[in-house]
Amino acid sequence: MRPSEGNTTNRNRPPGPACRGAPAFPGLPWRTVLLLALSYCLPLQAADLIDVYRLARDNDPAYESARHALEAVQQRIPQARAGLLPTIALSGGNSRNRSDVDFGQNAPAQDRDIRSWNWEVRLTQPIVRVQNVYARDEAESLAEQARAQFDEAGQELILRVAQAYFDVVAGEENIAVAQAQLKAMEEQLALARRGFDRGTTTITDTHEARSRVDLARAETVSAQNDLETKRAELEKIIGELPPSLAVLRPSSVAPRPDPDDARAWIGQARENHPRVRAQEAALRATEAAVRKNRAEHLPTLNLVASHGRNKASGSLDTPSDYSTAARSNVIGLQLNLPLYAGGATSARVSEAIAGRDRTRADLEAARRQAATEARQAFAGIASGLSRIEALASAVESGHSAVEGNRVGYQLGIRINVDVLNAEQQLHAARRDLTQARYETLMQGLKLKAAAGVLGEDDLMAINRMLGQGKSGWMPAYCE
């Protein structure tokens, strides 16, 4: 009998073993049902570093604030440039005047009701206004400072995201280490109990093993609490928590700096750190502010042109009541020569000079701080790589020590404390190795940030070192 004949109740059932307890989809073709079942049963893809960074770029309030701060400062450029461009103004008026007018000479008083209106268009074009030129230069320098500060905010976002991400995945791996340690201690406790029941070990071994189990359980709880704190920090940056995060593959190794020369990185940091570039732009702005305030002593020259009309229905000045209408066209130069402003201009010049000197000192401080950060990060990479190598060797030796002590304990040539100590040292080395690997990657990002070259490409390079972590949420019927 062909599949299309006979009982049709199983016609839409997907071939092969189905997921236990999977939901039914009556009336759908079996291929559609299979695809839906797979979509339910496959584990969710773990979010990686780039996914988290892009979430942070769209949701982090501090980065959003820095973006709007840049937009606000950039508007100072057209405001300052407006001081060199012409201004056009239109003014006008409409009035009514009712008066009793007495011109004397035995003339009777007259009651006059006069309506008048006028309008004028005036253009003013600065020709010589040196302080406005310096004001434009100051605004452009302030915009450059804001751009450098925004670049620094972008680098700080990358560092904050990477640190929070590494803290979470390292915390998850620390929990795995703590759980493995707890399991090993529980196994050793069970072994000590069996030995005591057989009379081959003492009660002290059992008590010692139980103590280590309790300590391992406390460390597991502490690691879980620490992980929750780290997850809260990451959530504060990106606004939401992915179900799982990709972790660093065991074969991944942090690269050495390129170039592998501390002096080259320090020199670049002194010149290219965003904070240094911001202070350099601030220094140019204060120098322009000094010139701008000094220029307040200089004369200004404007070109002025106007066109207008006015009309009145009568007159209050002459016995003859007649209407008037006039049209005017004016063009000319307007010179203004400041003579004395009560000392305000000189005080502003002195204030600007003091601000310039302070900014120059801040620039040198920024250069020294950038050099220090580059030096520390470079040293952190070197020491981190050495530490990773040593800890990897310690983990490998720790495995051998644990196996050897276990065999020795079973043969009666090792005591229970030796096994417990070997287990504890092994798991401590594993935990320290995890921390060292992520910390070394972090130092590499800090080195590039100090040099002012940190960007999304650096996160992508690290992202290629990550592999899928534990799956996140999965329906119960797919377990």
Structural class: alpha+beta
Report the CATH C-level class of one domain.
Answer: Mainly Alpha
The N- and C-terminal alpha carbons lie at a distance of 36 Å
CATH topology of one domain: Outer membrane efflux proteins (OEP)
- Per CATH, the superfamily of one domain is Outer membrane efflux proteins (OEP)
Fraction in beta strands? 5-15%
What topology, given as strand order, has the largest sheet? 1-2-4-5
What does the oligomeric state look like here?
Answer: single chain
Morphology:
elongated
- Sheet of most strands: 4 strands, antiparallel
Estimate percent helicity: 55-70%
Average pLDDT = 83
Order of helices and strands: HHHHEEHHEHHEEHHHE
CATH hierarchy: architecture of one domain: Up-down Bundle
Helix count equals 11
What value does the Rg take, in angstroms? 40 Å
Low-confidence runs of at least 5 consecutive residues: 1-43, 470-479
Number of strands: 6
Describe this structure in words.
There is one protein chain. Helices cover 61% and strands 13% of the residues. It is an alpha+beta fold. It has a domain at 49-74 and 131-298 and 347-470: Outer membrane efflux proteins (OEP) (Up-down Bundle). It starts with 29 loop residues before the first helix and ends in a 12-residue tail after the last strand.
